[in-house]
């Protein structure tokens, strides 16, 4: 801005149009590119991002323009346009960037069979899921075998028939828990051994 002062001209910088940083929501372990959420401002000034205290997520961190967190919750952020030769610096209001727990990949427990008195190590038949959560196994009512029992990851039965089982992978800092569909694990009668007379 140029204004006349007695004896000469005075040049002052103009104020920018308001700088706005929009809020967003993302699922972990995703990140947020803050540069895509900025609007407004004037001139050619550099944009810098600052984390403001008060968010509920852990590990809020900005690298360049990319915001990340190590747990679900909120990170509070503001952006500052440093201005240039024509415009004063300008800072946005605080934006709330939300991180939610992600959805795990599908967890699958496969059907299998074994001849008695064999057992089934369920850990060898589970796949999918995401993250570092613990996998546990649960019996579901309706099977035809007697004495279906799980010890750790090992399924056993005391008679021929089926045991119904589902697997659950617990959540962690990034993911919600997830449960498989019910698998049918089959126990067949032991084969008779051929004996010589």
Mean pLDDT over all positions? 93
Relative strand content? over 45%
The helix/strand series, from N terminus to C terminus, equals EEEEEEEEEEEEEEEEEEEEEE
Whole-number total of structural domains: 2
Helical proportion? Answer: under 10%
CATH uppermost class of the largest domain: Mainly Beta
Structural class: mainly beta
The strand count comes to 22
Cα-atom Rg, whole angstroms? 31 Å
Produce the secondary structure layout.
Elements: E1 2-5, E2 8-11, E3 19-21, E4 24-27, E5 32-33, E6 38-40, E7 47-52, E8 61-63, E9 66-68, E10 73-81, E11 90-91, E12 95-100, E13 107-109, E14 112-115, E15 120-121, E16 126-128, E17 135-140, E18 149-151, E19 154-156, E20 161-169, E21 178-179, E22 183-188
Parallel strand pairs: 4-12, 14-22
Antiparallel strand pairs: 1-2, 3-6, 5-9, 7-10, 8-9, 10-11, 10-12, 13-16, 15-19, 17-20, 18-19, 20-21, 20-22
Please provide a written account of the structure.
The protein has 197 residues and is mostly beta strands. Helices cover 0% and strands 46% of the residues. The protein is built from no helices and 22 strands. Strand 18 and strand 19 form a beta hairpin. The termini are far apart. The mean pLDDT is 93.
């Amino acid at each position: 801005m140029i204004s006349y002062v007695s004896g000469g001209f005075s040049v002052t910088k103009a104020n920018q149009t308001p700088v706005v940083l929009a809020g967003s929501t993302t699922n972990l372990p995703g990140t947020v590119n803050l540069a895509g959420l900025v609007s407004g401002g004037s001139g050619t000034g550099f944009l810098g991002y600052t984390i403001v205290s008060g968010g509920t997520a852990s590990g809020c961190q900005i690298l360049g323009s990319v915001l990340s967190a190590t747990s679900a919750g909120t990170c509070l952020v503001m952006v500052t346009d440093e201005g240039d030769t024509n415009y004063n610096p300008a800072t946005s209001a605080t934006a709330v960037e939300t991180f939610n727990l992600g959805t795990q990949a599908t967890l699958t427990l496969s059907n299998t069979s074994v001849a008695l008195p064999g057992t089934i190590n369920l850990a060898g038949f589970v796949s999918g899921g995401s993250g570092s959560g613990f996998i546990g196994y649960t019996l579901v009512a309706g099977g035809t075998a007697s004495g279906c029992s799980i010890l750790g990851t090992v399924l056993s039965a005391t008679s021929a028939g089926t045991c119904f089982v589902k697997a659950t992978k617990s959540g962690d800092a990034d993911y919600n828990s997830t449960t498989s569909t019910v698998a049918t694990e089959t126990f067949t009668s032991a084969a008779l051994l051929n004996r010589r007379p």
